[in-house]
Amino acid sequence: AQKITQTQPGMFVQEKEAVTLDCTYDTSDQSYGLFWYKQPSSGEMIFLIYQGSYDEQNATEGRYSLNFQKARKSANLVISASQLGDSAMYFCAARWGLGAGSYQLTFGKGTKLSVIP
Amino acid sequence: NAGVTQTPKFRILKIGQSMTLQCTQDMNHNYMYWYRQDPGMGLKLIYYSVGAGITDKGEVPNGYNVSRSTTEDFPLRLELAAPSQTSVYFCASRSDSYEQYFGPGTRLTVT
């Protein structure tokens, strides 16, 4: 079954330090895409970064980068220079394949990140 | 642009009541989605639509219905509400780039 696994229920990081949030996935599809979303305590879902399975370079968006290791089926999120505003739930998600399934996102259970001043 | 809007923000229902969660997007996106998020969990897909007049079931469709008569609107109908439907409901839309834009959510409690 296709699924997303986030093994870290909670993480702490010192302000200005870098932190890595883990995500592994399971699929037999060759074409898929991986996403990271941030959910602050206010509840909205904020898109952070996207990596396609055929993209050769790791995706980067400002302080966010996605460490994509295809052979290991991992798509870890790296946040550099953490800020207090980074405290939130972070969800890894994926779309699978090119057919109707690619319309849907499968989410992991999330990691709660707390940034310590 | 307002993006994806959802109403209401909060609602309390009694068991057996019905209601419609409204979702509207102004980005002319063909694809729209309804998810639910239970406490401490990720989002699960209820229904989705690939265009006006076309809808399909997601992972957890039981107890819900949808319709898509226009590109902009994608309402979610709950019939005979049950405590298991207590959740936060998110509507989302996307363009062809796969990124999904989420609404602010509706927090529903069924007692």
Topology diagram in text:
The complex is a heterodimer of chains A (117) and B (111).
Chain A lengths: L2 E3 L4 E5 L4 E3 L2 E3 L5 E8 L6 E7 L7 E2 L2 E6 L4 E6 L8 E9 L9 E2 L3 E6 L1
Parallel strand pairs in A: 2-12
Antiparallel strand pairs in A: 1-4, 3-9, 5-6, 5-10, 7-8, 8-9, 10-11, 10-12
Chain B lengths: L3 E4 L2 E4 L5 E7 L5 E7 L5 E9 L2 E4 L6 E3 L9 E3 L8 E8 L5 E3 L3 E5 L1
Parallel strand pairs in B: 2-11
Antiparallel strand pairs in B: 1-3, 3-8, 4-5, 4-9, 5-6, 7-8, 9-10, 9-11
Give structural attributes:
heterodimer; A: about 120 residues; six-stranded mixed sheet; 12 strands; globular; B: mainly beta; four-stranded antiparallel sheet; 11 strands; about 0% helix
Briefly characterize the structure.
With 117 residues, chain A is mostly beta strands. Helix content of chain A is 0%, strand content 51%. Helices cover 0% and strands 51% of the residues of chain B.
